[in-house]
């Protein structure tokens, strides 16, 4: 009887323990299911946030790219792909330096130490080799993976508008130069010729010889004045420049200079060089001014002008063998022609 009671107690305790363990397992199961449910909610929330971020990332009009410290492009939005002509599967295989020329000349160590590389106008090279002007900003995120964000704004429309404004200014200035040139030629020129005519008429025998000598000097001065008016008129508005282009205009101007001064002028322009009219006018004015400055100040006997095209940009090189001068010293002296130095620079 005692043995039977002990067995019953043992069985009761065992059943109680099993029941308790079952409740614990049930609670653990419920807790685990709750954790799984919460993790799923967090995952869904993260995926939803990631989806929204990608949607915003791709809907932004400016081109956005994410890249590492080696300039390898990790991700980019649709605007960047459209701008460059790249495909998404090409990302991760290319370097940003292949598309931004300035990055190749940038000290990479300074970029990320300063947490900011540059915020300026640059050119980005599209897949078809077109150089597109952009406003380019790089921001270093400085996270563990070393990822960085670049914001690229297409400014082709802005540049086109700036060009239109500049062309309008140049055309207005050229129109005014042409008017002044015409007035000098048509109005002042004939007046000087008339003065010369009256001066040469003073050659009668009954006139004091000293007046005849004075008349001769006046005539010589009139010749110089008429010559100067013609030169000024031609420099203000070169007909050769408009009809035949910058090379022929510079060639004609250089020949006149060489006939008047002991200096050799060499022009090395490629025959296919034919910039827009507004650009030709501006370059012609600058080069003529440089030639004049060389004659006035450099004591040179040789001038060389070269032109070419590199990366879709016009490059002009002007060189003479003159004595030169200390730019800083001249600027400190605050001469009246400081402005010329600034504009020429």
Helix count, DSSP H or I runs of 4 or more residues: 11
Radius of gyration: 40 Å
How much of the residues is beta strand, in percent? 15-25%
The biggest sheet amounts to:
5 strands, antiparallel
Order of strands across the widest beta sheet? 2-1-5-4-3
Terminal Cα span? 119 Å
When the domains are counted, the total is 4
Key phrases:
alpha+beta; Beta-Lactamase; 4 domains; five-stranded antiparallel β-sheet; three-stranded mixed β-sheet; 11 helices; 8 strands; disordered C terminus
Describe the structure.
- Helix 5 (156-200) runs antiparallel to helix 6 (209-236) and helix 8 (246-260) packs parallel to helix 9.
- This protein has four domains: 27-57; 60-154, Beta-Lactamase; 156-237; 240-345, Heat Shock Protein 90 (2-Layer Sandwich).
- The strands form two sheets. A five-stranded antiparallel sheet has the order 2-1-5-4-3. Strands 6-7-8 form a three-stranded mixed sheet, with helices on one face.
- It contains eleven helices and eight strands.
- By secondary structure, the chain is of the alpha+beta class.
- Helix 9 (277-298) links the parallel strand 6 (264-268) and strand 7 (302-310).
- Residues 107-117 and 341-345 have low confidence and may be disordered.
- The longest helix is centred in the first third of the chain and has 58 residues, at 2-59.
